[in-house]
Amino acid sequence: MSSKVWRHKPLSPDELLGRVEPDGRVYASELGPDQYVGRVELDSGQIWEARFGPDKLIGRVTLDSGKVYRAQFGPDDYVGRADDDGKLYRHKPLAADDYLGHVEPMPSFGHAGAALLLLLLPAWEAVQAEHKAAEEKAAAEKAAARQAKKDVQAAQDAADAPTRTRKA
């Protein structure tokens, strides 16, 4: 039986992102057939992203504690963890970890780690990029409105300047 992966959405129903099969294959839910996105080796905890050609090693999960690491040059980067009950968290340095979602049922830490690295973190990063773009757009619009107001004020001052000099 496959495990479903849910992304937490505050004040609304959680969003189904995909599923993890008992053999470690991970699929993203889409309209129509689900898309294969990667796999986890359940004996070693290595997480592989599916690509055209050979798969790419993107991280690993410790099978005894549920800690998830993203592979990089040098030491691997700790990105999050899975609890015994299937809850998945993103690591925040010097703060409490963010709850991102859950896997149900959770057969092992390997399955949960693959769900975190292949489904939840990319979805979370996409949402954060959208929020950042919206904030930058709002800031640009606010700056443009401020500049337009200054331009109007400067034009009014320029129009009023000759009348002031005549009166004096």
The number of helical segments is 1
| Helix/strand structural class | alpha+beta
User: What is the N-to-C order of secondary-structure elements (H for helix, E for strand)?
Assistant: EEEEEEEEEEH
Head-to-tail CA distance between termini: 90 Å
Helicity level: 25-40%
Query: Can you list the strand order of the major beta sheet?
Result: 1-2-3-4-5-6-7-8-9-10
Radius of gyration: 25 Å
Q: Low-confidence runs (pLDDT<50, min 5 residues)?
A: none
- Strand fraction: 25-35%
Q: Count the beta strands.
A: 10
Shape: elongated
Give the domain tally.
1
Main sheet attributes: strand count, strand direction, barrel closure: 10 strands, antiparallel, barrel
Describe this structure in words.
By secondary structure, the chain is of the alpha+beta class. It has one domain (3-131). The protein contains one helix and ten strands; from the N terminus they run E-E-E-E-E-E-E-E-E-E-H. Strands 1-2-3-4-5-6-7-8-9-10 form a ten-stranded antiparallel barrel. Strand 8 (77-82) and strand 9 form a beta hairpin. The longest helix is centred in the last third of the chain and has 59 residues, at 109-167. It is elongated and about 85 Å long. The termini are far apart. The model has no long low-confidence stretch (mean pLDDT 88).
